Q: What sequence folds into this?
């Protein structure tokens, strides 16, 4: 992807990553508090998955087999991975924006005679920062797909999880290859 296209897409990516980090809407919601993931579906009590793979729906702890607990733990790790990937994508976007603004400002100063040397930030630096964004987007999309697959499996294997199996773990994201749209 060329540098100019990356810069145009940057504002959208940073806004997207900020929204994704908050992750939720009124009909369904996923919250991450650092120790647990809470799923909310309209008309259902909250379902909470802990970092140890336990599940409670409302105030009731759900009995699980070791296999079910392992699946919930994997799901917990995927959802927290989506959160972490969104934060990393946001930071990579901010880094690219900072470099691009510095380079543009220096170029303007140079054009009007206020700077005598070229910017210390090269096009290669901008391309490397853009590549970092591409990798973060790829990681995010990979985690979204894996979370959806795990949700479907959990909905089939744990009856109490079934109402939450359709939650979109990243409703602001549509992944097409490693490209994020949304």
A:
């Amino acid at each position: 992807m060329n540098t100019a296209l990356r810069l145009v897409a940057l504002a959208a990516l940073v806004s997207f990553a900020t929204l994704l980090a908050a992750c939720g809407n009124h009909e369904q919601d996923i919250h991450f508090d650092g120790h647990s993931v809470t799923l909310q579906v309209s008309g259902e009590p909250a379902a909470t998955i802990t970092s140890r793979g336990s599940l409670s729906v409302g105030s009731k702890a759900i009995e699980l087999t070791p296999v079910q607990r392992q699946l919930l733990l994997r799901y917990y790790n995927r959802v927290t991975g989506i959160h972490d990937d969104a934060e990393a994508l946001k930071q990579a976007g901010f880094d690219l924006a900072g470099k691009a603004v510095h380079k543009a400002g220096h170029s303007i100063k140079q054009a009007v005679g206020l700077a005598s040397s070229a910017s210390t930030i090269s096009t290669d630096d901008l391309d490397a920062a853009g590549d970092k964004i591409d990798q973060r987007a790829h990681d995010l999309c990979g985690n979204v797909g894996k979370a959806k697959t795990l949700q479907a499996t959990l909905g089939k294997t744990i009856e109490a999880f079934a109402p939450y199996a359709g939650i979109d773990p990243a409703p602001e994201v549509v992944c097409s290859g490693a490209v994020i749209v949304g």
About this structure: The chain has one domain: 3-22+66-181.
